[in-house]
Amino acid sequence: MRGTLSAALELVSPATIASDDIANPCLSCGACCAHFRVSFYCGEVAGENGGYVPLELVQPLGPLRVCMVGTEMGHGRCVALRGELGQPGIHCAIYENRPSPCREFEVWQPDGSVNPDCQRLRLARGLPALNPRPDAGNDPLGPQHPDHPAAA
Ligand code: SF4
Ligand code: SF4
User: Fold this and answer.
1) Considering the domain boundaries, does residue 15 fall inside one?
2) Separation of 95 CA from ligand 2 center, angstroms?
3) Which ligand number lies closest to the CA of residue 82?
């Protein structure tokens, strides 16, 4: 059962983490991976349905839904999270195979402003507030455009 987990750990290399660290605040955070119940449709689980999330890392919630082990009750740390919360190098051991809620929860919104839930979780962990996406000022619909002031 744990054999697949070991294989999954190889999906994220230290080189990948290092190269992304500057641009990706998630790699020194991890707050959302230790807060939400990460639930999703069971078809995303690896198996005959063509899913990809490792079976041994999920817990059934009902006939059609599962969640990541550790997140069942909320405010729990996902089993796939590696490293120390808020410290450089924290990462998802199954990044390439993470479920849809993890793919959909983004740091920045389409206009470049910070996802308010992300900001809230960071501040609750004592982490510094994030700024709008660095290139948002060049986005005609970005939060720094005079016609679109930054979100409060
Ligand atoms: S709370 Fe925000 S910055 Fe932290 S890991 Fe989640 S998405 Fe990334
Ligand atoms: S699967 Fe990965 S991205 Fe999703 S909550 Fe767990 S550690 Fe975070």
Assistant:
1) yes
2) 7
3) 2
Confidence of residue 40 (pLDDT cuts 50, 70, 90): very high
* CB of 121 closer than 6 angstroms to any ligand 1 atom: yes
Asked whether residue 152 is assigned to any structural domain, the reply reads no
DSSP 18-69: HHHTTT-GGGG--GGGGTS--EEEGGGBBSTT-B-B-GGGEEE-SSSEEEET
Residue 35 counted as domain residue:
yes
Q: How many domains does the chain have?
A: 1
Q: Is 122 in the pocket of ligand 1 (CB under 6 A)?
A: yes
143 assigned to some structural domain: no
Count of positions (residues) in the chain: 152
**pLDDT digits 0-9 by tens, 95-150:** 999 999 999 999 999 999 999 999 999 999 999 999 998 877 776 666 655 554 44
Q: Which residue's CA is minimally distant from atom 4 of ligand 2?
A: 102
- Structural domain range at position 51: 2-138
- pTM to 2 decimals? 0.80
Question: How much is the pLDDT for 139?
Answer: 67
Contact between 54 and 5 under an 8 Å Cβ cutoff? The reply is yes
